[in-house]
Amino acid sequence: MRMRAWIGRAFPGPWRWKLAVREVLGGLLVCGLAALFQAGDSGGWPSGLVVGACAVLFALRRGLPGPVLVVSAAGVGGPAGFLPVLVVAGYSAGRRISRPWRTPAVLGLGFLATVGVGLLQNGRDHFPLPVLLGLCVAGYLLTGVLPAVIGRYRAQRVALLDSLRERNTQLLRERVMIARQARLRERHRIAQDMHDSLGHQLALIAVHTGALEVDRTLGEQQREAVAVLRQAATGAMRELREVVGLLREDTATAPGGVDAIDRLAETSRAAGARIELRHLGTPRPLPAPTGHAAYRIAQEGLTNAHKHAPGTAIELTVRYEPDTLVVEVVNGPGGDGTAAVSGGQGLTGLRERARLLGGMVHSGPLPDGGFRLAGMLPYTAEGARAALPDDEELALLAGELVEPEKRRRSPAVGCALGALAVLGVVAAVAALGAIMFVSSLRDATVPTRLYDAVEVGQSEQSVNERLPVGSEFLTQDFRRIGPPLPEGAHCRWFAGDREGDDQDVVRFCFKDGLLVEKQHFHGKV
């Protein structure tokens, strides 16, 4: 169980196929670069061992970014093949180490590991200590610290974006709740006003028409007319209760529908209207907003026909097209046929209702003097916005939100300053290294006139006082070329100032406190 926990920590998931492919390709790239760097290193390290170690470190960098960075930094102090994996480990450490104090601590340990291994390797390379420290600082800042700064910026940016999304979602939900509460309060107020005003008047009409219906002084036709009025008042009361219930209950279904159009036609026939109702096409289930809109179109068309063309024939058609429900009301000529066009808010409300559902309403006079009102409504309620569900309302408001933390300082500022600091230190180290190299080159060069002025047989002390201090780092390869050394003598090597294809070398050999030989030769280093 503990072994499984360690494996899960070293190789954190979830391992989707995209992540696996990316890891494999990245590992191959790092190992290939490690092999190229190791091919140019003359340190004698086995290339296979270095490449294998780089592969293991690359695989472990996601779960163990700190230890991998320290080990990679220590490896860079020796073989050059660890450079690619150090860059990747630095980025991973900056990206995945979340606690602020851990990242500098890990980077500091990595630098100490680089310097420590570099000091151990100095016996082979013979670097001067200042040069070695400068190379370690500049190289580690470029290959370890700078990738860590970039990874840290990336992690902070992702965290900031996640925080902004979460805050936007919270603000969005609060905004939807406030809008819904305001809508419910307004609905309750409208419902109360309608109930108190219209309900009272309709109740009086129903009561008085009921009394007239049993009045014996009225004739049969008058009683039938009063009965129609009472039925109309009762129907109006029923619809008013449905509307009030719709306003008070946010989840209530809309009053009326396509099925209620038949009852609407029967009521108009009872009032004496000549109505022909036709249902064409194959009926299909409709969303509640679409059915209610169809009912309102039929109701508005019949109302306009009763008002502006009383007594004329009316054709009411409900037609199921392949993709649209068509409700059409056509009345013949009678009265002022254009009055319905300027009838007020009824047609305007129908057009707005149909538009919100993704449909349209057309109205206008006919050539024979009649009037036609037709509505085309889609079967789906995707375009409906009159009664939005929560997720659709949320989606609509999401496009209107602005980022609440837009003015917050970006983490790119801090990371950019860190990167500039790293580059500044590297530039300073490079400038100092250039100055030290020029100084070392001057200390390791003996001019021709000085070589000619020194004579064999002079004391070692007097000769050394005239010679420059030298540089073992720059002249260490000179020992492999030139004539054999005098037996029992110790020598000093310098670079000459004569130009040529081969290296100009000057050698002074001392024995028993005297200069016993001086040589000036050329060779390939």
UniProtKB/TrEMBL annotation:
Regions crossing the membrane: 68-91, 103-121, 127-150, 415-438
Signal transduction histidine kinase subgroup 3 dimerisation and phosphoacceptor domain ranges (all copies): 186-250
Entry EC no(s): 2.7.13.3
Any Pfam family the entry gives: HisKA_3
Gene3D superfamilies reported in the protein's UniProt record: 1.20.5.1930, Histidine kinase-like ATPase, C-terminal domain
Keyword Cell inner membrane in annotation: no
Protein name, UniProt field: histidine kinase
Organism: Kitasatospora cineracea
Organism classification: Bacteria, Bacillati, Actinomycetota, Actinomycetes, Kitasatosporales
